[in-house]
Amino acid sequence: METLQGKKIENFQLKNSLSRIVDLINIDGPILSLFKGKNFNELYLFDWVDRNNLFNRWLIYRCNAEILNKFVDGQISHYDLFVNSENISYVVDIDYNITWNNIIEISKKDLSKNYFPSQEIFFDKLDCSNYPKLLEFLTKFQQLKQKNSDVKFLTSYLCFGNLLSDSFSSHTKIAKKLPVKSNEVPTNLFYSFSL
């Protein structure tokens, strides 16, 4: 296995917060596996990249659901899935007792090009360990993401509405103190605030 330069991690908290969903590529064993973090919106991929007599080496990286869907739909390759994921990855050597060893945080620019996935490999549902489960998970994930997006929009809308209401209210109070007739409103007053 190659020697890698990166930041050695002694206490890898992520390990205990991951749940395996499905192997996206499984040919005589997992090659690319999908995990979710404690927070439902965190997706991680375990990419098998190397081995020796003691360890299987895995590249772990966080991925975007939109990019993952493009991979599953066959629009992008395994390589594209990786290069469009987050820049920081983790390399972990896992032994046959499932003990994690030699955990390294590494950026893509410092990662050996031998560990980059092939541009020739595309998702094939026949290589997926449980394609129906993958589809169900991705559907639920998108629905939850949409609900969260709707809640964020509503929260922003309500906060923005309160902000406008508060701004208008305070400008009205200021306008009442200005020496103008009650039926005249100074136009520059309404252009004086910005959000």
Short description:
The protein is α+β, with helices and mostly antiparallel strands and 195 residues long.
Your description of this structure?
The protein is an alpha+beta fold. The chain has 2 domains: 7-129, no CATH class; 130-195. It contains 4 helices and 7 strands; from the N terminus they run βββββααββαα. It has helices at residues 65-72, 78-83, 131-177, 187-190; strands at 7-8, 19-26, 30-36, 43-51, 55-63, 88-95, 100-107. Strands 1-7-6-5-4-3-2 form a 7-stranded antiparallel beta sheet. A hairpin with a 4-residue loop joins strand 6 and strand 7 (100-107). It is globular and about 50 Å long. The relative contact order is 0.14.
The strand order across the widest sheet is: 1-7-6-5-4-3-2
Number of domains: 2
pLDDT below 50 for ≥5 consecutive residues: which ranges? 182-195
What proportion strand? Answer: 25-35%
Oligomer: single chain
The end-to-end distance, rounded to whole angstroms, is: 55 Å
Biggest sheet details: 7 strands, antiparallel
Shape: globular
Q: Radius of gyration in whole Å, from Cα?
A: 26 Å
Average pLDDT: 82
Query: Helix amount, in percent?
Result: 25-40%
- N-to-C series of helices and strands: EEEEEHHEEHH
Helix run count: 4
Return the structural class: alpha+beta
Number of strands: 7
Topology record:
Layout: E1 7-8, E2 19-26, E3 30-36, E4 43-51, E5 55-63, H1 65-72, H2 78-83, E6 88-95, E7 100-107, H3 131-177, H4 187-190
